[in-house]
Records
---
Amino acid sequence: MKGKLVYPYTEALLNYQFSRDHPLKQERLKLTYELSKELGLLKKVREISPTIAARSDLELFHTPDFIDAVMACHDETCVDIRYGLGTTDNPVFANVYDAAARYVGATLDAVKEMLKGATNAFVISGGLHHAQRSQASGFCIFNDVAVSLLYLLKKKPCKILYFDFDAHHADGVQNAFYRSKQVLTISVHQTGKTLFPGTGFVHETGAGEGVGYSVNVPLLPGGGSAELVRVLEEIVVPLFESYKPNLLVTQLGVDGHYLDPLAHLSYTSHGYEAVIRKMKSLSSSMCDLGWLAVGGGGYNVINVARLWTLFLSIMLDEKVPVNIPEDFLQACTDDERANAPTTMRDEQEAIHTEIPRETIALDLERTLRRVKELVFPYHGLA
Ligand SMILES: [Zn+2]
């Protein structure tokens, strides 16, 4: 492994703050950083301070008129519905342009380090996978992943596998590369029939040259670690091995965890851990450009902090204690501690759900069969 893991972080990232009652709270980044630091993990990484992405970089993906619209918004009174700005999901705030462009900068700076030889990076602020070419969407103003991957492809044409296990469909990233086979996108998420953004169905497999290179595995509400691991083994691993990407990108949104307030999946740390370990071994044996991990959703802030810290420990081959340190929890507010975990890993592997487990498993069985029928022939898989 060449060099230390790159970890972009600065308190200026916390300026990306919608209204105070908005579910996306930047404390999640601060708490992740502090917990990872307290457990000694940040001594093993190379911290970099993210810059604000240049307009010319944003234009690799976003339209000039949309960028102008974000620039023209200065405070919470700004509404521009054409561009998704000033809505309930994406209320405008002071200096929104700088804050959103710094989020892109964090991921782009990590990609630049990887182009210089860094083997892996974890960008906890990244993963704004809903932002569209000309519209803010789902708490995402600019799409750090789309911009950064387009930058990379311009500098170094290569094959990229993007795997996203956020509870919500990765619509913005999928759309950015829908006609491309240079980026194979795989999104496993709660079905769009019951959750924003209402897309991500099995039949969305790409267009033109990119047919077979957009992969979607929707799960019923209640889908848990067993389902996640099954998707890993039956879809992600075979596609990884046949596609042989130069770079792995993972979007590690943890709003599919059972403690998360926004979605209705029931993943536990055990399912996530199986995925992260597998991504680590596959990327280290196959990806010459390495592994870029980005954050994503997650709205129970202590839960986000401990899961992303756990993921970082796995990326670094370090151990974490059984319990979240008491002084860390004590420093959190009462609101943050409500319904928060106290251990680094979940005690249970599976969670009781309203929809019977057999129904969820049977639905996935059908979904997997259909995904394989539609996508596998493009990859020489039976
Ligand atoms: Zn999400």
---
Amino acid sequence: MLPKKQKNLFRYIAFEGIDGCGKTTQAQFFVNYLKREGFCVYFTKEPGGVNNKIRNLLLEEKWPSKTELFLFLADRALNIVNVKREIEKDCIVVGDRSIYSTMAYQGYGGGLDLEFLEKLNLFSTEGLRPDVVFYFDIDLKTMKNRVKKHDAIESKGDSFFMRVRKGYVELLKKEKNFFLINGEKSKEEVFRSVLKIWKSLLGD
Ligand SMILES: Nc1ncnc2c1ncn2[C@@H]1O[C@H](COP(=O)(O)OP(=O)(O)OP(=O)(O)O)[C@@H](O)[C@H]1O
Ligand SMILES: [Mg+2]
């Protein structure tokens, strides 16, 4: 049987939140769910959706903030080529992070100009943004309990991550496509919340 094609408006779904909030776990649950439902699904992650070359540069070493920003954008510009190709095929794209991570981390966290970042983000994606964003909210204590190894981004310190989390909450207020999920609950409970929102969006 050929995979079902996604004909509604929700073709690009992103998973967002601070480190350890459950993005990868929930994105995988969601990919498996969509596949079971018979959809054509394309999973991607940022950084590193296409290959790990830029991702490794970013995570192995600390860079000046603008270098870091342009590495993320370079990776995104590469990734978006595949994202667009899959959307054209009517597949559902599931993204582990997206443009909003740049707003939260480099913008709210790192203090770079938000309006300028928005322009750079849309330049790197040729205007494409996720249709739906699941934002998993956890506090810093939970983040530290869950994230044991520390790459260059994860070792930025508490005050940085407090700003990033606050940034996500600002984005939640501003962006109509953002949905808040309490990431402190069990993996299964969190996924039930994801599905509840997804089904309500589809009108099921
Ligand atoms: N709801 C949950 N309750 C308890 N543990 C969880 C929950 N969700 C994820 N975890 C565990 O926390 C760790 C981090 O989860 P995961 O990798 O999904 O987060 P992430 O948001 O992708 O993190 P990162 O930003 O570092 O990639 C994993 O060990 C995972 O098994
Ligand atoms: Mg992850």
---
Amino acid sequence: MSSARSEVPTQRGLEATSLTQVRTDSMALCPACGGRRLTSIAMTLTDGSPVDFTSCHTCEYKTWLQNGKALDIDVVLAKAQKHK
Ligand SMILES: [Zn+2]
């Protein structure tokens, strides 16, 4: 109970160690409701396009960004489909 050791959890910060990262960006505001409860997930679509998926916990607004530009939902769906 009286261990003198103080173990500091290792924090790798923003180091990209996995394909999918979940982060909350406190600077971002939801464009739909102005809320701050946004969750951004970096993901890769089926066609290999890296995108940032952002969803709002307050109003369920969702958006996809590729290279900082918003993608139309139809484009996202098209990219997410496997081509036959
Ligand atoms: Zn919202």
---
Amino acid sequence: MPSLDDFEQTAKEKLPDWIMNYYATGTGEEQTLQENKAAYKRLRFQPRIMCADKHRDISNRVLGYDVNIPIGVAPSALQSGAHPRGEMATAEGAEKCGTVMIMSSWGQVLIEDVAKSAPNGILWMQTYLNKDRRNTQNIVQRAEKAGFKAIVVSVDSPCVGIRKNKGYQGGDQFIKTLKGEVAAKGFVNYQGAVDDIAKARASGDDRLFKYAWDQSLSCPKWEEVEWLKTVTKLPLIMKGIMTVENAKQAVAVGAKAIIVSNHGGRQLDGLPASIEVLPEIADAVKGTGVEVYVDGGIRNGSDVLKALALGAKFVFVGRPALWGLSMDGADGVAEVLRTLEHELKVTMTLCGCSRLSDIDRSLVIHEAKLKCKL
Ligand SMILES: Cc1cc2nc3c(=O)[nH]c(=O)nc-3n(C[C@H](O)[C@H](O)[C@H](O)COP(=O)(O)O)c2cc1C
């Protein structure tokens, strides 16, 4: 079975450099991007031998929905760069595996078309708290009507992180960087503020790049979440929580779940790896009923098991899904998820776990705590 590194290599060979750069890179010195993966390597297993069963059950429930695997697809923008069917194919891939797909509001396919392409999928809609509330309201209410099951509010992007290398620096450069077919599709889901959108189009920004960019990076405050609750009945999930304090605020404001995430190292460089802050955040919200998920740097089944052991109920992958999408559309996304599923099951058995409830913190130790006898 190929590993996720093989999928990445294939994507690299297949995709034009400028698309690969947009997908793969991070901000600043890319410290957080690299640490997301490196931090998993600093964690080791303490298995329980002679207690695994042949049969492993990794089904789970998230926000009341049954999922076949505890691994879903994180929202990522501009998926037409990876495959002409973009977000529709990703949704189908997740549906095939009986798991969650979060659609980015910066997707290039209509929300309604994604819903139609995966009628039995568990779809969640991501949004920023846009400068003009009409845009957020439009995205959220269309998603609700189309059958999406939850709203994921990304709260880690008051402005765009510093992109020194190859990627993009700001709105203008971003627009220039995106070329051809990907650019042609634009930001189709920005439809709320009709008058301003018409003005943006008239000014030559016909694909709404600059407009959506400017709308999304709006420095929202916590009160904006209170407003959001008044325009939708769907549960709210807050994505981009990296501290205990912010996790408690998310609970207080009524979030039903949080995603511990540093945006895959694409916003504030210098943040810890998400797996490093997961345990304290999971402890802080214990007993509140708020579910805790994590993303960032998960590249194999061992990483998934470590995240579950340290307090996540569910994990998400961002870039790996894009590698699968670029290889083979929906089937490629499903193959990435199945690879992780297979690796998780094998690692569970080797650790002595037969079901997710067997997984707890005692299975994982930080390398700093291993006593060296040399
Ligand atoms: C190309 C790309 C685009 C992304 N776009 C969004 C987005 O529109 N909204 C969002 O909340 N997160 C976005 N993210 C962050 C992902 O949701 C996720 O947090 C991150 O990719 C997880 O790290 P991983 O790629 O190492 O799995 C994006 C990530 C990538 C790689």
